[in-house]
Amino acid sequence: MKNTTHEIRQSFLNFFKTKGHIIIPSSSLIPKDDTTLLFTNAGMNQFKDFFLGQKNSTYSKIATVQRCLRTGGKHNDLDNVGYTEKHHTFFEMLGNFSFNDYFKLEAIQYAWELLTSQKWFNIPKNKLWISVYKDDNETYEIWKNIIKVPIEHIIKIGDKNNCQYNSENFWQMSDNGPCGPCTEIFYDYGNGSIDNITDFIENKTQRFLEIWNIVFIEFNRISKTNIIPLPNKSIDTGMGLERISSVLQNVRSNYNIDIFDTLIKKISKFSNLTNSNHISLKIIADHIRSSTYIIADGIKPSNEHRGYVLRRIIRRALRHGRKIGIKKIFFYKLAQDVAQVMGTSANFFKDKIYEIEKILKIEEIQFSKTLDVGLKILNKKLKHINNNILSGKIAFYLYDTFGFPVDLTEDICREKKIQIDYVNYKLFQQQQRSKSKSNTFYKNYNDDIIVNDICIFQGYKKNKITAKVKHIFVNKKPVLEICKNEHGIIFLDRTTFYSESGGQIGDTGQLYYKTAYFEVENTKKYGNTIGHIGKMNSGIIKLHDCVYSEINQERRTSIQNNHSATHLLHATLRKTLGNVVEQKGSLVTDTHLRFDFSFSGSITLPQIHEIEKIINNKIFNNIAIKTKEINLEDAKQQNAIALFHNQYRSVVRTVFIEDFSIELCKGTHATRTGNIGIFKIVSHRSVASGIKRIEAITGKMAIKHWHKQENQIQNISSILHTHPVDITEKIQKLIVQQKHLTCKLDKLKNKDNINQINKIIRCSYEIKGVKILIHKFYNHNYKELKEIVQQLQKKIEYAVIILINIVNNHFTMISGITKNLVNSITAKSIIDIVIQETHGNGGGKNDLAAVGTTDIKKLDIILKKITLWINRKLKNN
Hints:
Elements: H1 5-18, E1 22-23, H2 48-52, E2 61-69, E3 71-72, E4 75-76, E5 90-99, H3 104-116, E6 128-133, H4 137-146, E7 154-157, E8 170-172, E9 177-188, H5 197-203, E10 208-221, E11 227-240, H6 241-248, H7 258-271, H8 279-296, H9 305-323, H10 335-341, H11 353-382, E12 389-390, H12 392-402, H13 406-415, E13 419-420, H14 422-437, H15 443-448, E14 456-457, E15 464-474, E16 477-479, E17 481-482, E18 487-492, E19 494-495, E20 509-513, E21 516-526, E22 529-538, E23 541-542, E24 546-551, H16 553-577, E25 583-588, E26 593-598, H17 605-620, E27 625-631, H18 632-637, E28 651-657, E29 661-664, E30 679-688, E31 691-698, H19 699-719, H20 727-762, E32 765-767, E33 770-778, H21 782-795, E34 799-807, E35 810-817, H22 827-838, E36 841-844, E37 848-853, H23 859-876
Parallel strand pairs: 1-2, 6-7, 12-13, 14-19, 33-34
Antiparallel strand pairs: 2-5, 3-4, 5-11, 6-9, 8-9, 9-10, 10-11, 15-16, 15-18, 15-24, 17-23, 18-22, 20-21, 20-24, 21-22, 25-26, 26-31, 27-28, 28-29, 30-31, 32-33, 34-35, 35-37, 36-37
C-alpha cells in the first residue's frame, strides 16, 4: 500500500468517523488562553481543560489532525531537524479522544484495526511491536489475549531510577494533575526476536519506529509518589502523520515521503544539488513548512516571544541555503509549494499565501546582508580557534556589530563540534548593557554624582520661576559656590527645566540673579532630582541662593511642537499600518523628531503621503491638546497608547488629542495642534530587522526643508539647461542616451574580449590534451578579466586558465579550470601557491579563484612555480 500523505490523513479521519467520532478541526498553533505553552505541541492541547475537569466536552468521542510545533521547552526538536530521519519543527498529529466514553479495550481495538485491516492501512501484524507500563496488567492482557499479539512482541517498560511512575510508558501532563499509563505501537524495520527489554530500548531508534501512543488518563497525580483514581476516565492518542506515512509509503525517512520529496526537489533546483539526502535540504524543507504555518496563524518575525522563534527558524533555513550555494533570495518562493503539497491541511491559509510570501521575502532580504557578512567573518575566525572553543568576545562582536544572532553562531559551531564560551559572551553582553544605560552627553556626571534630594518640576505651565540652590557640583565634587568660567551642575528645589526623558531632550536656558549668570546647556535627571548642566558666564552663585530659573522658550516651543507631532504620528501609523505598530524608541528635539516602531512590511511613498495628509489635517483643524491625571486602569480602558511593560503609578499623566490620540506621557506639549504649523516626513527606513524609523520636521524647519529642495531643483535645472518643470523629461532622455552609449560600449568590450580570447588561445600550449593559457594584462577591470576566464571555460573543453592584471605595484591573478578537470587540478590550489609566496588575500572555488597582492617583484618566480606544478599534476594523471 502506497498512499499519499493526503490520503492517509483522510483515511484516519474516515475510520474514526465510522466509529462514531466527531471530527474537530485543528486548533491554531497559538494556544488559546494557555500561557504555559508558546506553541501548540500536541494533539491534546485544545482539550486540556476537558482532561483537567475544568470544562465538559460537547462530544464524548473526537478525532482530529492537529498541527503542532516543537521548538522549545519540554519538546524541542529544532536541533535534531535534518540530522535524524524523524524529527520536525512542524508536524501533524493524528489523534482520537474519549471523554468518559470508551477506554482501554476499545482504544486498543480501534488502533489495531486501523493499522492492520486490509480495508485500512494493511500493515502486517508481525511488523508491529507493543510496549506497556510494567504495572498495567489490564493493557498487557488485552494485547495478549484479545488482540492476540505474541508475547515476545509485547515489552513491559519499567520506571527510571527506581522512581515510581517515572517511565516512558507513564504519561503525565505536568508535575501534578491528570496522568496515566500508556501503550505504544512500534513498526519493526528489522527481523528476529528481542531477548530482553535492554535490547529493545537500545534498538528503539535504529530498528523500531514508534508510530502510535495511546494514553489512558485514569489518575490524578498528587505528588511524585502519590496518585489517586479520577472519577472520569479519558483516552488521549497521538500518531505522527509524517511517521505513519513513511511506513505506508515504504521509506525509512520522513524526508522521503511525498510531501518532503516534492519540497526537496524544488529546493534542489535553486541549489543545483544532486544529493537529495543533503542535511541542508531537509532543514530548509522542514523550516519552510513551519514558517508558513506560523505566519498563517498570525505571527510575524520579531525579536520577542513567538516572533523570535519564527525569525530563528527562517534565519536558520537561510543559512543552510547559503551553505548549499543558494545566493539569491529563494525561501519565500517555497510557500506556494507548501500550500500545494499539504492538501486540505493548508486550506485555512491558501487565501493568505501572498501575505505569507511578502513577510518571508522582507525577512529574507533584510537578513541576507547580515548573513553574508556574519558567515564570512565567523568562518574566518573558526579557522584559527584553539581547543574547539569559540571566544565569547567573537560571538558577541558578530551579534553586536553585525546583528548576527548568537543562536545561529551556535548552530554553525555545533556542526563543526565547536562550543561557544558563553561565560565570556555573557560578560561582554553585560558590559554592553551597562554602557547603553549611561548617557552620551555629560555622561560622567550621571555616572559619578549622587544627589539624595527632590526637585519639583513646574515647567508645564511656567517658563520662569524663582528657586533655591540646593546643591552645586564642580568637577563632580560638591562645592559651596560656582564662579565665572567654571563648568558644573546646579540642583534647585524646583525648576521650569524639563530633564531629558521619554525621548524628549532636556531644556536649555539660564539661571541668574543680579550679576550672576549660569548658562544651562542641558538638563538631566539624577534619581528624583534634576541637574542643570552648564557654565558660569559671570558672577558667583552660592549654595542656598535664590535664582531665576528661565528656559529658552523659543527652543522649548519647537520641542513641544515636535513632541505633539510625534503623538500624532504614532496614532496615524497605527491607523494606517495597523495595531501591529509598536513604539520601539523616539527622539524629540527642537529641530526634528525621530520615531522607531515595529513593522515587518515595506512602507510605500503613497503611504507616507497618506500619513502626512492625515497629520496635517489634524494640525489644520487646530485641535486642543489636553493633559489629564487619570487612573491607570481608566487609561487602559480608553485604549491609551503606552509601553505597558514599563512601571507606571496608579495615576498617570495622559495626553489627549481628541479621541484620535490618547497616550501616557510626562513630556511637554503644544496647547493646540495648530501650533505645530506643518508636518513633513524627511526619511523612512529600516534600522533593524522588523524595525522601521521615520524622521520628520515641523513648522519653520519644514519650510527651510522645502526652500532647500527648491534651490536644489533650480541648480539641477541650470546644470541640465532646462526649466524645472521639464527636469523629469530631460533626465529620462539622458538615461536613454546613457543606455545607448553603454550598449555600444559593451559591444566594443565584447569585440575586444573576443580579440583578447583569440590572442590568449594562440599563445597557449598543451600538456596531454589540456590547454595551458597564461596571459598578462595591464590596468584592466577585474570584472572583464573574470568574464574572459568564464568565456574561455565555455569555449575550451580541457583548459587551465591563469590571467594576471598588473596595476602599478599591485597584481591580481584569476585562475579558472574547466569542469572536466576539477577532480585532478583546482583553481583554488593554484591561488594558494600565490598566497603562500606573497601572503596576499584571496580564495574561491575549485573552478574559479582569485588573489590580490602588492608583491609584484615575485610575479615571474610565482608563475614559474605554478607552471611547474601544473605540468607535474597533469603528467602524473
